[in-house]
Amino acid sequence: MKHLYLSFSPRDNRIMAEMRDRLLHQGFKPWIDPEPHPGGDWRFLIDDAIQNSDAVIVIVTPNSVNSDYVTYEWALALGLGVQVIPVIFKKPDNMHPRLMTLNPFNFYGFKDPAHFWDYFLRELKRILSAPHAAPPPVMPENAPPPLPSVSRS
C-alpha cells in the first residue's frame, strides 16, 4: 500500500475529498494534514508525513498556488527526495516554475471527468511502481570542493 501525502488549500476541500476517496478506493493510503489544535505544533506531523510518504500529490488551483503552506510542503518533499506529483484542477494564473517542470496532470484538459480519473489513477500506479531516484544535492556556487574519498585498507 503506497502512502501519499495530499497537499492542498483548505479552500479546495471538495476537490481534496474526491481525490482522497478515489485514492482510497484504489488501495492507496492518503494522508491529509489534521485540523490544528490550540497549543499544538502540527508542523512536525506534516514534516514527518511528507518524509514517510511514497509521493506528495499537489492539488493545484488558484488557491493552492497562493498558499505558503502548499509551497512549503512540495518544496520540502523535493528537498527530501520524495516524488512530487502536481495535479492541476483549476488553471492558476501564476504557477511556480519549479512545479511546472514536474509534468503536472491536467484535470481541466479532459472533457469527461471519468476519463481523467481513469487516466490519472492508471498513470499514478505506473509512476509509483517505477524506481524513483532522489535528486543529487545541489552545491552552492561558492562551496568548497568535496573532500576526496580515502580508502582504508
Write up what this structure looks like.
The chain is built from 6 helices and 5 strands; from the N terminus they run βαβαβααβαβα. The protein is of the alpha/beta class and 153 residues long. β4, α5 and β5 form a beta-alpha-beta unit. α2 runs parallel beside α4. The model has no long low-confidence stretch (mean pLDDT 85).
Write the layout of secondary structure elements.
Elements: E1 3-7, H1 13-25, E2 29-31, H2 43-51, E3 55-60, H3 62-65, H4 68-80, E4 83-88, H5 97-100, E5 105-106, H6 113-129
Parallel strand pairs: 1-2, 1-3, 3-4, 4-5
Helix pairs in contact: 2-4
Please estimate the helix content.
Answer: 25-40%
What assembly state would you assign to the polypeptide chains in this entry?
single chain
Helix-strand pattern: EHEHEHHEHEH
Q: Give the structural class.
A: alpha/beta
Task: Compute the average pLDDT.
Answer: 85
Question: How would you sum up the global shape?
Answer: globular
Q: Rg to the nearest angstrom?
A: 18 Å
Give the neighbour order of strands across the main sheet.
Answer: 2-1-3-4-5
Number of helices: 6
Please describe the biggest sheet, giving its number of strands, its sense, and whether it closes into a barrel.
Answer: 5 strands, parallel
Low-pLDDT segments: none
Strand content: 5-15%
Per DSSP E runs of 2 or more residues, the count of β-strands stands at 5
Distance between the termini: 43 Å
